[in-house]
């Protein structure tokens, strides 16, 4: 990633700060990314195959003003971090299904671990609702974040991360700290695009946090949350989808359909 691409990427996520590889910069980069780049699965529903290629991630996210899912978002962010001087690696995670009470397959989710000052941090801009800031890999310590409280815990296969809501612990996923290569995720990336058992194939989804809530389009439903209160939860005619997509995410549906 050359200097021009780094500059374009930073402009895409509206980051204006210094570029030193320290924790404060990492925090702001993650938050800016989450607030600027949506989590979305639209290519799956417009039959646009997602390939694990950073050049294609860059074109989609930075040049075409799109979002993506974990492989794309965290895959590209990992590349940016390394180019900015951070010691970053991608790791495999298995997402927890709270209904079935099981974890997904290996490579179900791609996350990032950054080593800083002899500490490791979990970094994730591709999991939908998650922490704004990196989470320190210290087991059993509740970590406060603008998006809530989180805890990392040791389990037999490595580590898990959960969100704490009062007395309720909502497990997000489990992971190991083993460094992975991007191409190792291809089989699960294909699965999530094509298998009817994948929740990504069920409905179109695009979602982005705000400083005080979240805006989400799921199918033909718009949901807006502010300060933990649902402000809007409306269904609209499917013919309205393109207008809602442009209004809330500045994405042109026709451009998606025409892209290759």
Summarize the structure.
This protein is an alpha+beta fold and 260 residues long.
Number of helices: 8
Helix percent band: 25-40%
Q: Could you tell me the radius of gyration in angstroms?
A: 18 Å
Strand content: 25-35%
Terminal-residue CA separation:
22 Å
User: Helices and strands: which structural class?
Assistant: alpha+beta
Strand-and-helix sequence, N→C?
Answer: HHEHHHEEEEEEEEEHEEEEHH
| Major sheet | 9 strands, antiparallel
Unreliable runs: none
Protein architecture, described:
- The protein has about 260 residues and is an alpha+beta fold.
- Helix content is about 30%, strand content about 30%.
- The protein is built from eight helices and 14 strands.
- It has helices at about 5-10, 25-35, 40-45, 55-65, 70-85, 185-195, 240-250, 255-260, and strands spanning about 40, 85-95, 100-105, 110-115, 120-125, 135, 145, 150-155, 160-165, 170-175, 205-210, 215-220, 220-225, 230-235.
- The strands form two sheets. Strands 2, 3, 4, 5, 6, 7, 8, 9 and 10 form a nine-stranded antiparallel beta sheet that branches.
- The chain is globular and about 50 Å long.
- The two termini are about 20 Å apart.
- The model has no long low-confidence stretch (mean pLDDT about 95).
List strands and helices in order, with pairings.
Elements lengths: L2 H10 L10 H14 L2 E2 L1 H4 L8 H10 L6 H14 L3 E11 L4 E2 L5 E8 L2 E5 L11 E2 L6 E3 L2 E8 L2 E8 L2 E8 L10 H9 L10 E6 L2 E6 L2 E6 L2 E7 L5 H9 L3 H6 L2
Helix pairs in contact: 4-5
